[in-house]
Amino acid sequence: MELDKLDLLDVRAELSEEECLTQDTVARFVDQSVLPIIAECFTAGRFPAELIQDLAGLGLLGANLEGHGCAGLNNICYGLICQELERGDSGLRSFVSVQSSLVMYPIAAFGSEAQKAQWLPALASGEAVGCFGLTEAHGGSDPANMKTIARRDGNDWRLTGSKMWITNGSIADLSLVWAQTEDGVRGFLIETDAPGFATQEIQNKFSLRASVTSALFLDDVRVPAEAVLPGVVGMRGPLSCLSQARYGIVWGAVGAAQACLAEALGFTSTRELFGRPLTATQAVQIQLADMARKISTAQLLALHLGRRKDAGKLDPSQISLGKWNNVRMALQVARTGRELLGASGITTEFNAIRHMLNLETVLTYEGTETVHQLVVGKELTGRSAF
pTM value? Predict the structure, then answer.
């Protein structure tokens, strides 16, 4: 039996028929629709918005949610969706993560029936795009240090503040904004054409260039009481959303690493130096083998966490361990892939530099590597060092 070079431990053999079909469907979409244009999008700093309807048509938006036009797939399927999308580009996976895990999930988990009926079908179909307003410029890894305020005004609320580093911000129709209230942190569903709501796209990025990243500004934005998520108060709300997104990143990082290994294998097998292909040298074989080792162990970790999530047994500290391990793994693999490409590795004619730059952001967002290390440290010691 010849092993799959990108899956040496045959993790795919552990997947169900539906899980395999999901992976194959998204893989074809990435090969046919994403890879032919993504280098140009990255170079131009352009999000490929023309792909949104394709993503929706495949049922990839809110794929692991039930009802209201969502596909109702399990969490392994959702992970595989993230893996294949990030094999294409982290920016595309980020779009789906925000739409699915950070906007649709909290509406499904904490929203009223009216909010679910209004927004989930529109978001699942791609008719509406959502963004998640939690991070603030001064807050970073301390989201509880929130300055955005929501005050009651009769039956309405008035919000003032700003958010930073918001994926999808400038193209969103709906923004889920988290704000301090007299009762604690609450989530507000704000239509982005509301008076006083403004966005500004962040320019000059050298990472996630095929993704929209924005600042949000709220200048006395008035929303009705019906805009508040009724099902949660406090930081448990936004943190539970982050757990959903971090789980997807555990899988997505594997896809970016696989793309870099596949490219390195192809390049080193045809590149000849000193009368033989690079793959005939011990140094290159050791580097390729190390890339495959890292990817294989990360695949098993992602699968294990997915099975626990589907069983309702996944702890947030386990997600932190997975995000920390797999993103660091992918960044190391991307850097090795870029090195093996030599001078060619610094151009977007190849994938490694694009994945490497993107993963610098993935290492930071949804909790920096240090944050996840401290989450695991707290689990081990019982003491918070934040």
Answer: 0.96
